[in-house]
Amino acid sequence: MPRKRTRQKRSEEEHTHLAIRVERCEASVEARINYDVYAPQHAWDLDDDDPLYQFTTQLTLVGIATYPEGRAGDSYELTIYGSDSDSRRVSATVKDVQERDEHASPKYRQYRGRQIPIYNPPSGMGLIDKIRGEPRWTAWLRVPPRFTSDALALLSDGRTLFLAIHERKKDRARWIQSVRLQTIDPAEE
Q1: Which one, 22, 26, 84, 93, has the greatest CB density within 10 A?
Q2: Exposure string over 116-137, b if 16+ CB within 10 A, otherwise e
Q3: In terms of residue numbers, what domain contains 164?
């Protein structure tokens, strides 16, 4: 008897828009010499154009989800790393994600009589992870220093703040597509 072929399911994407009321915040700033100078053999992405002196702002926002209903009441902890030392990731351009052929030339496709570029977009800006067995989530995000400075300015205002996070789930990974820190509850928009 011949075996039945099982079709593999295509991994479908799931998009979720989260609204999180910020309960507290922790912040730190750091200045240091680039560690890769002392141990280049351990550097993951060694780049000679990275700065010798690194200046980093770390901001951790902790809050409770208000939307969607299935996650309302869950705790979220978002850690934001503001640094310009990771220059390739933070300042990437659209040209950087254009697909290339075997000769490193940009690839295009025909669309309605004109050539349009083919892109290989990043999975996301950061990751969201569920803490197993608890109604708690953690997330991280790398941004330019200006973003953390602007976020700190909003936090010092004393008003209730909300995070609006666009999450994209593909396979088992949850990616941050966008994040906003705002004074209006995104669930009410």
Answers
A1: 22
A2: eeeeeeeebbbebeeeeeeeeb
A3: 13-90+106-188
Nearest to 147 by CA among 87, 80, 88: 80
**What's the CA gap between 42 and 83, in Å, rounded?**
20
The answer to whether position 142 is within a domain reads yes
| Cα angle: 30, vertex 84, 42; to 5 degrees | 75
Say how far apart CA 48 and CA 44 lie, in whole Å: 13
Residue 1 belongs to a domain = no
The residue whose two tokens read 């990043």 is: 122
Q: Structural domain tally of the chain? A: 1
Query: Is the distance from CB of 25 to CB of 62 less than 8 angstroms?
Result: yes
Distance between start and end Cα atoms, the chain: 59
Tokens of 98: 């254009």
Model confidence pLDDT, tens digit, residues 139-167: 999 999 899 999 999 999 889 999 999 99
